[in-house]
Amino acid sequence: MCLAVPGKVVEIAGEGELRMGKVDFSGVQRQASLAFVPEVQLGDYVLVHVGFAISRIDEQQAMETLAALEEIGDLGELGPPDEDPPPPGRREGS
Amino acid sequence: MRHVDEYRDPAAVEAVRRRIRATVTRPWTLMEVCGGQTHSILKFGMDELLPDEVRLVHGPGCPVCVTPLELIDRAIAIASRPDVTFCSFGDMLRVPGSRDDLLKVKARGADVRIVYSPLDALRLAREQPERQVVFFAVGFETTAPANAMAVHRAKAEGLANFSVLVAHVLVPPALEALLSADGVEIQALLAPGHVCAVTGYRDYEPVSAKHRIPVVVTGFEPLDLLKGVLAAVTQLERREARVENRYSRVVVRDGNPAALRMIEDVFVVSDRAWRGLGEIPRSGYSLSARYAAFDAERVFDVGGIAVSEPEECRAGLVLQGRLRPTDCPEFGARCTPEHPLGATMVSTEGACAAYFHYRRGPRETAAAG
Asked: pLDDT tens across A14-32, in order?
């Protein structure tokens, strides 16, 4: 029930608590309330839950997250590759 | 799909997985709180990617699953009335009440509708003023602003034929109850990213401090989940215990102010009974006095319907992370999505449903043998 889907705002109409947007989810377009994301502009990505945008997706944060992931991939201290057995764990109780 | 595909990239998943393996030196037990995360984990096989030391247990984050039996019976009593159009999210329809479920009531001719949004129910109320339109307002904090808006709009528009049956629950009080119980094995929490999109994560800071437990705000895609696990085990290995936001493209510390204002306008915090967990103080929302006229329990006088929980379903243990669904003797045998004993087998966020859909191998093989 907390499922929420990211989509791009392609149309905006109305104001305040009646502000609605047409949101494009990879080609499928649906109306969603934009009442809770007053800062959202055309072209922004929002996270939609039961017909309401609950969050604007922060592009800067998304890029930083992905950049940090690339960094992880680049580091040489990743431990043994996939086919090697896992390192022995020091099991201390549970 | 943008903001989805990037977080399913196999090379990146492998890199984070190896980092987790290089970080972990001892066994740790993590709970992912949200049932949506449970389904992602099983669907993508994330649990099988983790080193043996990292065990994921599944939390109570399935609003349909924790809705008490008596509320289902009250919903059925209301939906059975000839003057009522009863609207609900889809996965509530198959949840067993004490005798029936909403789907059977619908099959007998009741006007039960599946809606995508509470605004759909509101539209039905506008379109058919001669009928009573009731919306089953189930959900965690994620859904509360939407359901609050429906009630708020109904009042603003003077829609006297609209009401809601409220079954709203809150995550932090449930975590507090879970962590305060005896014999807790949970050492870190992956906090529900979409709940936190609405509320922020300030309410998790006292939980983390009191129980000395890492709490990592986590998203729903494979990489989000692995990043959440990595952050949690890194804290555990360093003996740290704090709230960390690993879903920063969606979540900020203070949450969504417009959504929180709407919740505050319509709801008040109240005690709530949780199926499987019992009564938890200040763990849910009820309509505030200003909106009492929209309370379906009052409109239809069903507050007196009280029943106790069935004993044969062990969903309570599943919801506390104390029983793996496949270890339940009824799993896949007497209990299936077609004939469920409890809500965890039917909800799209129920742990039993997740195992039934994605992980039936060993038991089926054993049963066949």
From this structure: 999 999 999 999 999 999 9
- Check CB contact under 8 Å for B227 and A69: yes
3-state secondary structure of B56: strand
Q: Is residue B332 part of a domain?
A: no
Q: Which has the higher per-residue pLDDT, B89 or A72?
A: B89
Segment B173-191 mean pLDDT: 95
Chain A residues whose beta carbon lies within 8 Å of the beta carbon of residue B3 = 6, 45, 57, 62
| Residue ranges of domains in chain A, CATH in brackets | 5-74 (2.30.30.140)
Contact A17 B153 (CB under 8 A): yes
SS3 B185: coil
Domain that holds residue B20: 5-63+172-245
B265 vs A3: which has the higher pLDDT:
B265
Going from the C-alpha of B254 to that of each of B90, B169, B199, the distances in angstroms are 31, 19, 7
Tell me whether residue B306 is in a domain. Answer: no
Q: How many structural domains does chain B have? A: 2
Helix (H, G, I), strand (E, B) or coil at B97: coil
My answer on whether B161 and B294 are in the same domain is yes
> Is the CB of residue A26 less than 8 Å away from at least one CB of chain B?
yes
Per-residue pLDDT, B361: 59
What share of chain B in percent tops pLDDT 70? 98
Residue that finishes a domain, picked among B201, B227, B245: B245
Tell me how far apart the alpha carbons of residues B200 and B107 are, in angstroms, rounded to a whole number: 41
| Interface contact flag, B12 A69, Cβ < 8 Å | yes
CA of B116: which chain A residue's CA is closest? A50
- Any idea which residue has 């057995």 for tokens? A85
pLDDT over threshold 90, residue A84: no
The verdict on a CB contact (< 8 Å) between B91 and A62 is: no
Separation of CA B310 from chain center: 20
Q: What confidence score (pLDDT) does residue A74 get?
A: 66
Of B63, B248, B259, the CB nearest to A58: B248
